[in-house]
Amino acid sequence: IQDIEGIGPLIALATWPDLLRDALWVHYIDNNGALSCLVKGSSRVSSTDTIVAMTWKYVHRLGVIPWFDRVDTKSNPVDGLSRGDLTGEGELIQLKFPIAQLTAEIRRARIFNPA
């Protein structure tokens, strides 16, 4: 679940770069492991470390000043979406998932850090 929760900021940056460019950005997350890795900027888990590294690359590239913080699950208005509950206000939009960049980062990481 850590990677699923932790990839949210990366997807937001990839989907709305023009909105987030040069912005102060507060992003709430309800997974302590993912939050800790995003704040620290790294993880001992290779997949999480790749996600975090790409997130911070986008942050730097876009000039974003992020603040990652914890939100309790019960206070999280989008928690139901992560569990498949699509009821409520709002509309679904197509998100941009940077799969090519993630794949390249994972391959590069394995060259430098063979398992």
Low-confidence stretches: none
- What is the β-strand count? 2
Main sheet record: 2 strands, parallel
User: Biggest sheet: strands side by side, in what order?
Assistant: 1-2
Overall 3D geometry? globular
Q: What is the average per-residue confidence, as pLDDT, rounded to a whole number?
A: 85
Count the DSSP helices: 7
Q: Helical percent range?
A: 40-55%
Indicate the structural class.
Answer: mainly alpha
Q: Could you tell me the strand content as a percent range?
A: 5-15%
One letter per element, helices H and strands E, the order comes to HHHEHHEHH
Distance between the termini: 22 Å
Rg over CA atoms, rounded to whole Å, is 15 Å
Overview of this protein structure:
The model has no long low-confidence stretch (mean pLDDT 85). It is globular and about 40 Å long. It has 115 residues and is mainly alpha-helical. It is 53% helix and 10% strand. The protein is built from seven helices and two strands. Strands 1-2 form a two-stranded parallel ribbon. The relative contact order is 0.20. It starts with a helix and ends with a helix. The longest helix has 17 residues, at 46-62. It has helices at residues 2-6, 8-15, 17-20, 32-40, 46-62, 79-82, 99-112; strands at residues 24-29, 65-70.
